[in-house]
């Protein structure tokens, strides 16, 4: 990413002040959203190449932040709920239970605490799949802490600790369940539409996603589902909710399509 600090703000005084004001407004609005707080499958069975002896009753455990909770989805399903519907529509599957323990606003430190709760641990133990998102609020925390002088330096400084916490999260998930397929849905740049001047955050997101993917590879039964490219400026449809941060129903549907494609490629669990 380079050693020199890269400033995101316009060097001209007027543009500099205007961008600061916009960024502060968005950060304040998002803080309020975080503190406050379809799949077309009916009657249609998905065809997988190998559905012989698939488990009739499948369990998904989901943990993480607002993306896994489904904030912004008018149907209140999010990618996890939509993917659940898709799996349940597969020939041979009778039911899919989704246990969703995600909480909006969660950072990696919060998820580590959440994974110590008995209710969550019990829910993880019998899961066939574990879905999770985390990291977006860690990035947002860096933005809030450096809103008046945002450079690459604080993101680089926080990446190492983030990677260590992510590694610990994976270890705790495996401590509760040694057989489930772990599927991590990647981070994306939420400022791409609201603050196009901050497009350099794309590089930060790319680096943090790469750090997460490196840890996931070590597990042997875990994958990262990359969704960052879904939320590009060239999209023909609006994919973010009114807060310009979380996906809307269409955005979550596209995320679920990516996730379900990986599920199909891997094949469903067998009896």
Explain what you see.
With 271 residues, the protein is an alpha/beta fold. The protein has nine helices and five strands, in the order H-E-H-H-E-H-H-E-H-H-E-H-E-H. The protein has a single domain, classed as SGNH hydrolase (Rossmann fold, 3-Layer(aba) Sandwich), CATH 3.40.50. It is 46% helix and 10% strand. A five-stranded parallel beta sheet has the order 2-1-3-4-5, with helices on both faces. Strand 4 (181-185), helix 8 (201-219) and strand 5 (222-225) form a beta-alpha-beta unit. Helix 3 (78-88) packs across helix 9 (249-266). The longest helix has 24 residues, at 153-176. The radius of gyration is 19 Å and the shape is globular. The chain starts with 12 loop residues before the first helix and ends in a 5-residue tail after the last helix. The model is unreliable at 1-13 and 33-45 (pLDDT under 50).
């Amino acid at each position: 990413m380079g050693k020199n600090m890269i400033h995101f703000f316009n060097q001209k005084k007027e543009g500099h002040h205007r961008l600061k004001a916009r960024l502060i407004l968005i950060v304040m609005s998002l803080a309020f959203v975080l503190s406050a707080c379809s799949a077309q499958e009916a009657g249609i069975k998905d065809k997988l190449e190998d559905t012989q002896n698939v488990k009739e009753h499948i369990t998904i455990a989901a943990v993480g932040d607002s993306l896994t909770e489904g904030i912004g989805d008018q149907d209140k399903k999010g990618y996890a709920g939509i993917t659940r519907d898709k799996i349940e529509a597969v020939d041979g599957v009778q039911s899919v239970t989704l246990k969703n323990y995600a909480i909006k606003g969660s950072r990696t430190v919060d998820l580590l605490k959440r994974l110590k709760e008995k209710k969550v641990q019990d829910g993880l133990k019998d899961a066939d799949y574990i879905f999770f998102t985390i990291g977006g609020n860690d990035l947002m925390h860096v933005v809030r802490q450096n809103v008046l002088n945002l450079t690459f330096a604080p993101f680089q400084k926080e990446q190492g600790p983030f990677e260590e916490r992510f590694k610990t999260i994976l270890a705790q998930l495996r401590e509760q369940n040694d057989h489930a397929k772990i599927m991590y849905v990647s981070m994306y740049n939420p400022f791409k539409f609201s603050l196009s001047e901050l497009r350099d955050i794309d590089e930060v997101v790319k680096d943090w996603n790469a750090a997460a993917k490196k840890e996931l590879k070590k597990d042997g039964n875990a994958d990262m589902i990359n969704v960052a490219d879904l939320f590009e400026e060239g999209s023909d449809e609006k994919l973010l909710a009114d807060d310009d941060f979380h996906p809307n129903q269409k955005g979550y549907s596209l995320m679920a399509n990516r996730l379900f494609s990986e599920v199909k490629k891997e094949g469903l669990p067998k009896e």
